[in-house]
Amino acid sequence: MSRPLTSRAETGRSESRRRGTIDVMTSSRIRRWGEARAQLDDDVARNLLLDAAERCVIRCGGTQIRMTEVADEAGVARSTAYRYYPNRDEVLLALVLRRIERAHGRWLGALRRPTDAAASIRQLVLNPVAAVDDGDPVNLALYAGDSSALAPVLEHGAEAIAAVLAEQLGPLFAQWKTDGQIHADLDLVETVQWMSATTSFLLTAQWRHRPLSAKRRFVDRYLVRALVVDSH
Questions:
Q1: Distance of alpha carbon 47 from alpha carbon 43, whole angstroms
Q2: What is the CATH number of the domain that holds 42?
Q3: pLDDT bracket for residue 3 (50, 70, 90)
Q4: Within this chain, do residues 107 and 80 fall inside the same structural domain, yes or no?
Q5: What was the pLDDT predicted at 36?
Q6: Residue 82: domain span
Q7: E strand or H helix at 181, and its extent?
Q8: CA–CA separation, 168 vs 98, rounded Å?
Q9: For the chain, what is the domain count?
Q10: Which of 82, 96, 147, 160 could form a disulfide with 62 if both were Cys (CB 3.0 to 4.6 A apart)?
Q11: Would you call 184 helix, strand, or coil by DSSP?
C-alpha cells in the first residue's frame, strides 16, 4: 500500500515542530547548568565561570575579554554569566581575588621565619611581584603591558583585596604585635593596604624589571622601617 502524500504545508509544520523540540532541548541543557546546578552550589557555578575567564584571558593575552566569550567558554547562556557577574570588571575582580587568596595562603604557609615580622613582611610583598613574571600564563596575561582594564579593577576592588589579605594575615599580625615587633598602634587592614600598595608600585613600568636587590632595598627603606620596631 502506498504512503499517503503529505502536503508541503504539513511538512513545514512538522519541520517547525522538530526544530522547536531541538531548541527546547538545547535551552533546557543550558538552563540546567545555569539554574539547577547553581541553585545547589553557587560557588561551583562561579568557579566554573572563573575557570572559563582564565582560559579567555590566556587566549586573549590580556584583560580585554568579553562576557560573551566567558559564557561561550563555560558552555552557558549569557544570561547565566550575567546572573553571577554583572559585567567584565566584576569577573576580572573575582578572578584576581581568587588568585590572591590562593597564592597569599601558599606564601603564608611557606614563610621561612613566620615569627620574624621584618623578614615575613618583606617576603609577602616581594613574592607577588616575582610571581607576575614567573611564567604563569594567567599572571602574564593579567599584567601584560596592554592590559589596561586591570588597573581600574584593582582600584575598585582595593577594599575587597585588603579584606582577603587581612583575614589570612590576622593571626600572624596579632602575634607580631604581641611580641612587640611591630608598632602597637598599627591597624591590620591599613597595614595590608600599605603592603598591597607597595606591591602594586613595584609592578609599575618603572620598577617591574628592576633587579630584586633594588626592590628589596625599597621595601626595607619605605615599608619595613615604617612598620617594624627598631628596624633601622
A1: 6
A2: 1.10.10.60
A3: very low
A4: no
A5: 54
A6: 38-86
A7: none
A8: 13
A9: 2
A10: 147
A11: coil
Residue ending a domain, among 86, 118, 146, is 86
Query: Does one domain contain both 42 and 118?
Result: no
What's at 40, amino acid-wise? L
Please indicate, yes or no, whether residues 216 and 149 belong to a single structural domain of this protein: yes
118 plus 186 within the same structural domain? yes
Specify if 28 maps to a domain: no
CA gap 135, 146 in Å, rounded:
17
Tens digit of pLDDT for each residue in 132-173? 888 899 988 988 766 667 888 888 899 999 999 999 999 999
Whether 31 is covered by a domain: the verdict is: no
In sequence order, the 6+-apart residues with CB closer than 8 A to the CB of 114 are 108, 120, 172
Per-residue pLDDT of 24-79, as tens digits, reads: 333 444 444 544 555 557 888 999 999 999 999 999 999 999 999 999 999 999 99
Q: What is the pTM of this model?
A: 0.77
Q: How far apart are the first and last CA of the chain?
A: 104
- Output the nine-digit C-alpha cell for 56: 579567555
CA-to-CA distance for 170 and 174, rounded, in angstroms? 6
CA–CA separation, 16 vs 180, rounded Å?
Answer: 77
Range list of β-strands (E), 73-229: none
Q: Rounded to the nearest 5 degrees, what angle is found at the Cα of 122, between the Cα atoms of 126 and 176?
A: 140
Residue with cell 614563610: 111
Rounded CA gap, 70 and 81, in Å? 8
**163 and 68 share one domain:** no
